[in-house]
Amino acid sequence: MAVCTSDFVVRGNIRSVLEDGALRAAVIKVSATRVFRQKYALFTGAGRAARRGEVRTLLQCGVKPGPGSFLFTGRVHFGEAWLGCAPRYKDFQQAYAAAKAAQQIPCELPVD
Fold first, then answer.
1. Residue 97 maps to which CATH number?
2. Which UniProt keywords apply (predicted)?
């Protein structure tokens, strides 16, 4: 599961999405509501509600801003966060509960 091996695991909302043509990537600005893990200081700010950061993903993924909470996981390459997966948080909770019930999770993550 990506939550066990990623450099960052963050629950949050998409504030905006900008296209970076030079990188052929989308830059996603995230307001983090919960930082489960980050190996580097990617999501920073004063207080829990004020943590902000950015992640990148390929343009072909078609990420768009919109309502809802997501689980962002991925790797850091040359100091930049690259998105591996971003399911809606409620969908992640269902998949996590099913994997936990089947004892297929190599790590624990405190989910709400």
1. 2.40.50.120
2. Disulfide bond, Secreted, Signal
What 3-state DSSP class applies to 78?
Answer: coil
Q: How far apart are CA 96 and CA 104, in angstroms?
A: 9
Summarised one tens digit per residue, pLDDT across range 73-96 is 999 999 899 987 667 778 888 888
Largest Cα–Cα distance in the chain? 44
Domain count, the chain: 1
10 Å CB burial of residue 66 (0-12, 13-18, 19+) is: exposed
| Distance (Å, whole) CA 111 – CA 93 | 7
Residue 15 confidence class, pLDDT cut points 50, 70, 90: very high
83: in domain: yes
Burial class (CB in 10 A: 0-12, 13-18, 19+), 2: middle
